[in-house]
Amino acid sequence: MFQTTQTIRFGDCDPAGIVFYPNYLRWFDGTFHALLRSRGKGHQELCAGLGLVGMGLMEVGARFRSPATDGDTLTLSVEVGEWRERSVRFLYQGRVGDRLVLDGFELRGLFVGKGEALGLSPVAPLKAYLEQPPVR
Amino acid sequence: MFQTTQTIRFGDCDPAGIVFYPNYLRWFDGTFHALLRSRGKGHQELCAGLGLVGMGLMEVGARFRSPATDGDTLTLSVEVGEWRERSVRFLYQGRVGDRLVLDGFELRGLFVGKGEALGLSPVAPLKAYLEQPPVR
Amino acid sequence: MFQTTQTIRFGDCDPAGIVFYPNYLRWFDGTFHALLRSRGKGHQELCAGLGLVGMGLMEVGARFRSPATDGDTLTLSVEVGEWRERSVRFLYQGRVGDRLVLDGFELRGLFVGKGEALGLSPVAPLKAYLEQPPVR
Amino acid sequence: MFQTTQTIRFGDCDPAGIVFYPNYLRWFDGTFHALLRSRGKGHQELCAGLGLVGMGLMEVGARFRSPATDGDTLTLSVEVGEWRERSVRFLYQGRVGDRLVLDGFELRGLFVGKGEALGLSPVAPLKAYLEQPPVR
After folding, report:
1. Do C133 and C86 touch, CB atoms closer than 8 A?
2. Å from A128 to nearest chain B CA?
3. Which 3 state secondary structure label does DSSP give C27?
4. Which of C14, C25, C32, C100 has the highest number of chain D CBs within 10 A, making it the mutation to test binding with D?
5. CB–CB of B88/B127 below 8 Å?
6. For A108-122, B17-31, C16-30, C67-81, which range has the lowest pLDDT when averaged over its residues?
7. DSSP state at residue A134
8. Nearest to residue B14, comparing CAs of A109, D12, C86?
9. Residue A136 pLDDT > 80
């Protein structure tokens, strides 16, 4: 559905010389935001238009299949695993060349309200937005 | 079994004003390393003693139950969920006061070798190490 | 004037085994925010009260005097170097035991307005706030 | 001399909605490492070849001229300001379109030895390396 590519950098890696794992989740999130933007709008504009406080995370998971290090070119692909009424599961795969480095998912919802009144709105508007063709 | 406490800071939060989620995973990892250190040794010393290249991550997961923000005092607790032959599951809970903010897990293994020869060593030595009483 | 103490963690370090330097700047910022909070309020509450968009950074600098690594206990101290009409210079020192690890500064201002109208407000209210005694 | 370009992401920004400043320093460092790699080798290979423990930081500084936010395309350029016997000053500029977002510098040295014996080696080999044309 969509992918980002980046060179892994020295500072992304830990004393064992491989990617410090929370960075992979940072890149999941960054790829989600790049996916939003690929259809023409960023998170802030979309949330303002839909009356949301955020397209937030409900759950995340990742399995680390092989290590990656400084200088590796990492391609992260994302696709929708499942649309539910009030949540959507995004599936991620990260590869260096043909080698699978990790796979995982993010379960996201459209949040409205604040404090005690924080709740989930139906995800249909996000589905309609993402089913548009990429801009340019 | 073990816990860390910290004040969440402005820079840990995103434009929605809540913790940017990969930071929680950074804190899972930091709590694991603090747990190691509570028994007297850090990761490098332990790995050198056991002939390991690292006590690396195989899988991670987290469910976000309620938001946390700048100034909140977050307590992260960790306990062992299950010792297997070549992996160990750590269970995490993060709370602000009594409120559950997130729970999750890390599946870790003891890695030996490099490249094609990268493999998993039995986790028994880590079990023996962590079952010691805390230092001081 | 004020200080924070933390144990440096595995994930704060890079493949050379020492702190990845941007983390020190993250800790400068975190110590500034902890200083604010030590007088009873956080950044958001203070900015709302003073009509500011932020207590933002205008300039930063740091000199790295000796390395620090996983397990080191780092104490960061901050004091005011100079109050000017529309800026304030905070001076930082980081030590592991008696050993100086780094020193540096942040030049901050009180920002008002947006876009073309973004400007600097006098820092006197921040001075008055910080000259209060610590809460508790 | 060399530049990198990236889209600023949601997670790079703080509750004020602008880039959390330590990320700029992370990108200075990343641009330095990309510059190394543009001549064919990464940090680890270069250090191994020259008998170094690292091309480490001695000093850093940055002035923040205008804010940048989620979705902005940031171009970071780096050039050498001055070669000295045992240090080199890199100058950075970050722009969004024509607008200057920040400028700054890194003072780096070639470190050899460990602990008490940590010292600086002449930077001439790095100068020779960087004066080669880019690979490809």
Report:
1. no
2. 23
3. helix
4. C25
5. yes
6. A108-122
7. P
8. D12
9. no
State how far residue C131 is from chain D, nearest Cα, in angstroms. 25
Which one-letter DSSP state was computed for residue B110?
Answer: E
> How confident is the model over D55-90, as pLDDT tens digits?
999 999 999 999 999 999 999 999 999 999 999 999
D20 lies within 8 A of chain B by CB: yes
Q: Is D17 left (phi over 0), alpha (psi -120 to 50) or beta?
A: left
First-to-last C-alpha distance (Å) of chain A: 15
Q: Which of C35, C14, C32, C36 is nearest to C23 (CA)?
A: C14
CB contact under 8 A, A22 and B29: yes
- What is the spatial distance between Cα A95 and Cα B77, in angstroms, rounded to a whole number? 33
> In this predicted complex, what is the ipTM?
0.96
Closest residue, chain D, to B14 (C-alpha)? D14
- Note the residue count of chain C: 136
When pLDDT is averaged across residues C90-103 and rounded to a whole number, the result is 98
Instruction: Count residue pairs from C and D with Cβ separation < 8 A.
Output: 67
Q: B13 touching D, CB under 8 A?
A: yes
Closest chain A residue by Cα to residue D17 = A44
Please tell me the distance from the alpha carbon of residue D28 to that of residue D36, in angstroms, as a whole number. Answer: 13
- pLDDT score, position A87: 98
pTM passes above 0.95: yes
Distance CA D136, CA D134 (A): 6
Distances (CA, A) of A79 to A28, A131, A134, C73: 11, 11, 14, 43
d(C-alpha B43, C-alpha B53), whole Å = 10
Chain B partners within 8 Å of C33 (Cβ): 9-11, 70
| Model confidence band, residue C1 (pLDDT cutoffs 50, 70, 90) | confident
Residues of chain B predicted below pLDDT 50: none
Count of Cβ atoms closer than 10 Å to residue B102 Cβ: 26
Contacts of B42 in chain C (CB under 8 A): 10, 70-71
The per-residue pLDDT for C114 is: 86
Q: What pLDDT digit, counting tens, does each position of A2-16 carry? A: 999 999 999 999 999
pLDDT at D109: 98
Determine whether A40 is exposed, middle or buried from the number of CB atoms within 10 Å of its CB (0-12, 13-18, 19+).
middle
DSSP assignment string, chain D? -EEEEEE--GGGB-TTSSB-THHHHHHHHHHHHHHHHHTT--HHHHHHHHT-SEEEEEEEEEEE-S---TT-EEEEEEEEEEE-SS-EEEEEEEEETTEEEEEEEEEEEEEES-GGG-EEE-SHHHHHHHTSPPP-
